[in-house]
Design brief:
226 residues, mainly alpha, 8 helices, 0% strand
Length: 226
């Protein structure tokens, strides 16, 4: 029952997005705009980009695009009282959370698939030297960021100041995730890539994911009931 409900919520969001492509296009445009603006800002006097800035810019773009996607996803649920209907359905509330979480993670993974090659090109960064470690960093960091963001976005869906409150609540808690992602990616971009350090940061991100997802599953129902 739990898995079936989560898949139904995911399929609903996927079907709506396939028809409208509203959130996907908005998120991609915003993320690519951030990268392009930073690519002009972080340029040396000789006209060469700053290679050390690539890791930070990648994760800043992911965080900004993720915040936009979270807000727009639950803004859609507010129309027609869709979220209220989901909560009134005879289904496990945490399963609704998992379905929304997987959908947002998938959306950000699509954005990252475009961001990584673009940043590698604009900043001449060796992001494809260790692809498996990079994928591990991006996936674990994205899950940790979205685990907290999905909970807060659902909690604030009825608040008038949700667009302001979401970043205020989200960023202080997800700062460790962003820092771990940046440090792990930076380790891979060194002249002599440090695989051990990158693996250590991936392990730390996995710990963050377990804690954040567990707490979100535990608190989703009481928060939404309130």
């Amino acid at each position: 029952m739990f898995l079936r409900v989560a898949l139904l919520v995911l399929r609903k969001d996927f079907a709506i997005e396939v028809r409208s492509r509203e959130i996907l296009y908005t998120t991609l445009f915003f993320a690519l705009s951030c990268v392009l603006i930073f690519s002009f800002a972080f340029v040396k006097a000789e006209g060469q980009p700053l290679e050390d800035a690539a890791a930070g810019i990648l994760w800043i773009a992911i965080a900004f695009a993720g915040t936009l996607a979270l807000g727009r996803t639950f803004e859609r649920e507010r129309y027609g009282e869709t979220l209220r209907a989901l909560l009134l359905a005879p289904a496990p509330r945490p399963a609704i959370y998992v379905g929304k979480l997987v959908g947002i993670v998938f959306l950000l993974v699509v954005a990252e698939a475009l961001l990584v090659p673009l940043i590698a090109l604009l900043f001449q960064a060796a992001l494809f030297t260790h692809p498996l470690l990079l994928i591990g960093l991006l996936l674990t960091g994205t899950v940790g960021f979205c685990a907290v963001g999905t909970l807060f976005a659902a909690m604030l869906v009825r608040a008038r100041t949700r667009d302001v409150m979401l970043p205020i609540l989200l960023y202080p808690i997800t700062v460790p995730v962003i820092i771990a992602g940046v440090r792990g990616t930076s380790a891979l971009l060194q002249p002599a890539p440090d695989e051990a350090v990158a693996t250590m940061w991936i392990a730390l991100l996995v710990c963050f994911d377990v804690v954040f997802v567990t707490l979100a599953l535990w608190t989703f129902e009481p928060l939404m009931t309130e």
